[in-house]
Design brief:
With about 240 residues, the chain is an alpha+beta fold. It has nine helices and eight strands.
Length: about 240
């Protein structure tokens, strides 16, 4: 029955709505295509010289129920840099769950069922309330190199996060992350609309610009190697 519901639900999304998103993509000179397996879509475009991809469809993460909107861009950042900004409710609930599983010795479950970015919550030091400033009311942050994350948030990105965050309730999952040289962003979105996609793409563009700015100022040799606990925290081979 659940499989049947999953097959039928995407059909309820109006065709005119998808057509409006396709038209929005064409105006942006981006490539749009349907994903027929789950009723979703993919849009390929660029922010200046940086190609990006937007995907909408069934969630790839256990902390997002239903459908999600995903963004990804290859930035060529240091492969060992791992950084994340996420909504505070998700951070607190995920940190407690993963920590309990880890300290109780349930390592196999953590390795196989816990998304990589959620494991970072117990691997790395979080930004303090004073370091987050106004962002701390809605967001949390963690990174393998905390000073890199602070520099990333020191410019326009913080204001862009606060502005875009007004479209989210406190319980809506949101994750902006850097891993394996890529920038990724995902959030819960049942009903995609051109204006909503445009708004989040604006935030993603700011995140791209600021990540490239910091990368140009940063000495990669100061970054710690991420694989300090390979037996407990294996890296994923792909970003889903």
């Amino acid at each position: 029955m659940l499989a049947l519901i999953k097959r039928l639900w995407p059909a309820s999304t109006s065709q005119p709505r998808l057509q409006s998103i396709e038209q929005w993509a064409h105006v942006r000179q981006a490539q749009w295509r349907r994903v027929r397996d789950d009723g979703g879509f993919v849009i390929d475009g660029a922010h200046g010289s940086v190609p990006w991809r937007i995907e909408w469809g069934a969630s790839h993460r256990s902390y997002i129920a239903g459908s999600e909107l995903r963004f990804i861009a290859e930035l060529g950042l240091h492969r060992d840099l791992q950084a994340m900004v996420l909504n505070r409710v998700l951070m607190l609930s995920s940190e407690a769950r993963v920590y309990d599983e880890y300290v109780q010795g349930v390592q196999t479950r953590v390795d196989t069922q816990t998304p990589t970015e959620i494991r970072w919550l117990v691997m790395y030091t979080k930004l303090s309330a004073s370091e987050l400033g106004r962002l701390g009311l809605r967001f949390g942050g963690v990174a393998s190199a905390k000073s890199w994350l602070l520099a990333w948030l020191a410019g326009p990105l913080s204001e862009a996060l606060l502005d875009s965050g007004r479209d989210l309730s406190e319980n809506d999952a949101f994750v902006l992350s850097i891993a394996r040289g890529r920038l990724g962003m995902r959030l819960a979105m049942r009903d995609p609309r051109p204006e909503r996609i445009e708004r989040w793409l604006g935030l993603f563009g700011v995140a791209i610009d600021e990540a490239r700015r910091v990368a140009g100022e940063w000495r990669d040799s100061t970054l710690p190697v991420a694989s300090t606990r390979p037996s407990v925290w294996p890296r994923d081979s792909r970003l889903e």
